[in-house]
Amino acid sequence: MKIPLINLHPTMDDLREEIIEAVIKVIDSNMFIMGPEIIELEKEIAEYCFTSDSIGVSSGTDALLLSLMALNVGPGDLVLTSNFSFFATAGVVSRLNATPVFVDIDPETFNIDSRQLKRTLIEMDKETLKNVKAIIPVHLYGQCANMEEILNISREYKIPIIEDGAQSIGAECYINGKKKKAGNIGEFGCFSFFPTKNLGGIGDGGIITVNDSQIANELRLKRVHGGERKYYHRVIGGNFRLDPIQAAVVRVKLSHLNKWHRQRQDNAKHYNELFDEAGLNDKVKIPCTVHSKNLQNYHIYNQYVIRAENRDKLQSYLIEQDIGTEVYYPIPFHLQECFLNLGGKVGDFPCSESAAKEVLAIPIFPGLTSEMRQIVVEKIKNFYKKN
Ligand SMILES: *Cc1c(COP(=O)(O)O)cnc(C)c1O
Fold it and tell me: Residue 250, exposed/middle/buried by CB under 10 A (0-12, 13-18, 19+)?
C-alpha cells in the first residue's frame, strides 16, 4: 500500500461541492480584489483566535514580512529568531536589509530556547540592543513555543513579538495560568493558508492577527502600497492582498478545523502507542508535548516528527516501501549558504544541528487510517531489525 506523507483528498473531497459553490460565488460576484469574502474571513479568524482584528494577506511569508514592515524594520536592525524553521522565518528579515540573529532550539520541542534567547540579549552591548526590533518565535510542527518566558523577555526588553504560527493555527498554551491561542500572545500572529497547513486554501494565502487597532491600520495600509486614498502614498507598502477565492475556500474549511485537529491528535496518540509497543525507544524518539493536555489544542500536529537513529537510511528504506516522509528541516539557518556571510560555523548551534540530522516527519494527515499507521510503524521496526 502506498502511504503518502500528505493527502489532502480526505479533507477536500467531503467539502467539494461546498468549496466549488463558494468559488463560483466569488466568480459570479466579479469582486476579484478584496471584497466581502476577505472581510468575513477576517472576522471569523479574529473570533477563532480571540483577537480584536485580523488582516488577510497574500501568504504566510508575506504575513511575516508585512509585520516587520509595520514595525519599520530596516537596514541596521536586528531580529531574533529560531535557528530551526522554514526558510521564510529568517528570509523576510534579510529581505528588509535587517539582520537575523539566530537562537538555538530546545531539543525537546524544536522551538526556540527561551533561556538561550535571554542569554543572547544579555550578551549584547547597549548599542546593539537598541537595534533589536523584534523577536520571532516559531510554533513549530503545531506546538506553541515557550511563550510565557518569551513574553517575560519581550516585556523586560520592550521588544515586540511576531509569532510565526504558520504551522499552528488554533494551537494553545498557558500564559500565567490563562489559556491562550497562538497569534493572541505577541503583538502579531502570522498564519499561512498554504495547502498543507492545518487550515489550507487552494493556493497561497495568509493572515495576521493583532489586538491593537493602530497596528491593524498600519498593516492594512501597507497591504495596499501604503495608500489610504488611491494613488496618494504616505508610506511605502506592497501588494500583500489575500485572494478572495482563497478567502472563500478557507471560510468553508474553517468550520471543520477543530475536528481535523482532533483527528491529527488521535493519529498521534495511536502512533505513540504503536512506537511504545514496538519497543523502539532506543532508536526512535516520539514527539514531546510540553503543553498541558487539559488544553484541547495543546498540539495540533501539523507534522508528527520523530527523531530517528540513522535517519537518512531509514528515510531511503521507507521510500522503497512506498511510505512518504520529509525532513523538516535538513539545514539550520546559520549553515544556509545565503546566511554564511553572517559568520555561522558548524558547532555554533548544537541543538539545531543535531535536530537537522535526526528529524523525520511521518504521515499524520486527517484521513490516515489505523491500518496505515500500523504499516508505517511496522516498516520502521523492520528497518531497525536489519540496521
Ligand atoms: C509555511 C510556513 C511559512 C510560510 O508560509 P507561506 O504561506 O508558504 O508563505 C512560514 N513559516 C513557517 C514556520 C511555515 O511553516
Answer: buried
The residue assigned the cell 525537546 is 108
- Contact predicate 246/203, CB 8 Å: yes
Q: Which CATH class is domain 9-254?
A: alpha beta
The residue among 66, 99, 101 whose CA lies nearest residue 83 is 101
Ligand 1: residue whose CA is nearest its atom 14:
166
How many angstroms separate the CA atoms of 175 and 145, rounded? 11
φ, ψ of residue 77 to 5 degrees: the values are: -80, 155
CATH 3.90.1150.10 domain locations along the chain: 257-386
Please give the Cα distance from 125 to 121 (Å, whole number): 9
Domain with CATH 3.40.640.10 in the chain: 9-254
With a cut of 90, say whether residue 376 has pLDDT above it.
yes
pLDDT, residue 153, reads 98
Query: d(Cα 73, Cα 115) in Å, to the nearest integer?
Result: 25
Round to whole Å and give the CA distance between 179 and 292.
10
Q: How many residues are recorded in the chain?
A: 387
Select the CATH number that applies to the domain covering 257-386 from these four: 3.90.1150.10, 3.40.630.10, 3.20.20.150, 3.20.20.140.
Answer: 3.90.1150.10
pLDDT of residue 293 exceeding 80: no
Question: Which atom, in ligand 1's list, is nearest to the CA of 140?
Answer: 13
In single-letter form, the type of residue at position 52 comes to: S
Quick check: pTM over 0.90? yes
| 113: nearest Cα among 142, 150, 167, 151 | 150
Alpha-carbon span 246 to 104, nearest angstrom: 35
The residues lining ligand 1, judged by C-beta closer than 6 Å to any ligand atom, are 59-61, 85-86, 88-89, 138, 164, 166-167, 192, 194, 204, 206
DSSP label at 333?
Answer: G
Per-residue pLDDT tens digits for 118-131 = 999 999 999 999 99
117 contact partners, CB below 8 Å, separation of at least 6: 80, 103, 135, 149, 150, 153
Q: Which residue has the cell 494527515?
A: 365
Pocket test for ligand 1, best of 67, 79, 86, 109 (most atoms within 8 A of CB): 86
